[in-house]
Amino acid sequence: MTQGEQLTDLSYLKEMSGNDNSIIEEMIEIFIEQIPEFTEEVTNYFETQNWEGLGAVAHKAKSSVRTMGMDSIGDCLEQLEHFSKGNLKFELQIKKEKGIELSPKDEKNWSNVMHETTNDVEMKHIPDLVECFLSKCPLAVDELKSNLKKL
């Protein structure tokens, strides 16, 4: 990220709200409240290698950050979601190859990830994507707080 580069772009939020500052303000405040939960979940799921959880929180956070015009962070989350699902697919494939019976939860996960094209090779990207999300979020929140003062 270069000096002075904006992480947020509220044009979508303004368009969606009909440029209603009270709605914009409320949406920003809700988002700022969500960020600690997102960052804690990403950190915990990554540290425990819970690929299902990591993929799910990346998916959930992705739409929120994109609403705030945080496209670069949204891209990190989209890749994180796909690589996490790819890794989950890899783990489930190994279980199936070893003849280990899948639990009902594993069966459900398998139906969700069996068509993922990413695989464990891309696992090496996950730490960088987690770092991208965790390092850019506080900067983006600061930008949003600054924007709130201008509304």
UniProtKB/TrEMBL annotation:
Molecular function terms, GO-annotated: protein kinase activity
Keyword Phosphoprotein: yes
Keyword Lipid metabolism attached: no
InterPro entries per the UniProt record, alphabetical: HPT_dom_sf (IPR036641), Sig_transdc_His_kin_Hpt_dom (IPR008207)
Protein's GO biological process: phosphorelay signal transduction system
Any Pfam family the entry gives: Hpt
Phosphohistidine, modified sites: 59
Official protein name in the record: Hpt domain-containing protein
Top-rank lineage group of the source organism: Bacteria
Gene3D superfamilies linked to this entry: HPT domain (1.20.120.160)
Domain HPt intervals: 20-117
Keyword entries, A-Z: Phosphoprotein
